[in-house]
Write the structure tokens for this entry.
Amino acid sequence: MTLYALRPDPVTGSLDDAEVISESRYGWQFTGVEDAIVAAEIVDNHWRVPADRLEELVQQVPAMDLRTQRSLADKIHALGEVMINAGSIRSFLSDAVNAGCVVVLG
């Protein structure tokens, strides 16, 4: 799903003729995750997860990409990827608010 930052019609306030200011294909399901991960000290200073904790963490963070075809080196960065997405969605939402937009899920 995609998040859209829409600027309502300046005359009517309607979203029917709203201008699409920005969009984000990622992150809507990640909001707030980054802060919780950092506070819990689950990752090292490079946002890597110890390999022996990956299966445990994927139960708590289903957005982690641990597909079989990924190498172990890639998998230990899966939580960092989620954290980056959380930062991206925070930035997207902040930009939308600052531009006077309404955010919709499409």
User: Anything to note?
Assistant: The CA atoms of residues 11 and 17 lie 10 Å apart. Helices lie at 33-39, 54-60, 72-75, 78-98. The longest helix spans residues 78-98. The two ends are 6 Å apart (CA to CA).
